[in-house]
Amino acid sequence: MLTHLDSQGRANMVDVTEKAVTAREAIAEARVRMLPSTLRMIVDGQHPKGDVFAVARIAGIQAAKKTSDLIPLCHPLMLTSVKVELVAEDEQTVHITARCKLAGQTGVEMEALTAASVAALTLYDMCKAVDKGMVIEQVRLLEKTGGKSGHYKVQG
Question: Which parts of the sequence belong to the Molybdopterin cofactor biosynthesis C (MoaC) domain (predicted)?
Answer without folding.
Answer: 13-147
